């Protein structure tokens, strides 16, 4: 199989590339390398047999002219993500995430099978408004409670992407699969997400240890499980034209308890200091994975403790990614 990974040098993208290569497939990665350029994992992937790497700006329509159009699978993972990026420059988030989608849709050939990486943030506003149930299925109403809030720039860009993919796929004759990721974590994901951010502070010996949003709840999904779900969906005929939640519904955890787990893994016991959650942060998030199970037979395999241990070990060795 020949797979094209747009944004394949990012967090989920590189883990997916490794999996596809391990399964014997040919992989082409296209990325602007805005992060991870000096990453040893990326360097190793570049030298792997069956891997091609193209450095390019996916917001430039001219980029696609140099890419072959015939692929067995295409994954669009490229996006500006992370709360700090969103709050610092929401206009860039909207521009990059939207242009990348629209240029790909202008280019993709009929008969292709394309995965679009979306997010649970598209319905987060409805959870706190009390109109969306948790655990949450795919057919709930999407809701952005305050379009002027910088945090919702990311959700709006992904919601547009979902609509663009599903409508264009029907009109243009290609298969679209939309995966909504729910709190995916793991090694090499940057430093602005809760588990690696806590791991770095615990490793540095922070005391007292800050726990923003300690009363919130999340269901975290290890990246290996997310990749397993993606590959299964792309092989499932019934996933065509569907939005499918990707996550782990087995171990929903309180953020305060997550902090205690990270500290236990780190072998430290500082005083804990709770503080308010970041503005716009949803109080609770957990996916209903009934559709994913029905389509693929997927079950999460990595426990939260196992995942936190491997993630902490990676950050303890590598430190804050560039």
If you had to describe this structure to a student in words, what would you say it looks like?
The structure is a single chain. The strands form 4 sheets. The chain has a 7-stranded parallel beta sheet with strand order 3-2-1-4-5-6-11, with helices on both faces. The protein has 322 residues and is an alpha/beta fold. The model has no long low-confidence stretch (mean pLDDT 94). The protein has 11 helices and 14 strands. It has a single domain, classed as NAD(P)-binding Rossmann-like Domain (Rossmann fold, 3-Layer(aba) Sandwich), CATH 3.40.50.720.
Amino-to-carboxy terminus distance: 32 Å
CATH superfamily caption: NAD(P)-binding Rossmann-like Domain
Helix and strand sequence:
EHEHEEHHEHHEEHEEEHEEHEEHH
Helical segment count: 11
What number of structural domains do the residues give? 1
Biggest beta-sheet profile: 7 strands, parallel
Poorly predicted sequence stretches spanning 5 or more consecutive residues: none
| Helix and strand composition category | alpha/beta
Q: Based on CA inertia axes, which overall geometry fits?
A: globular
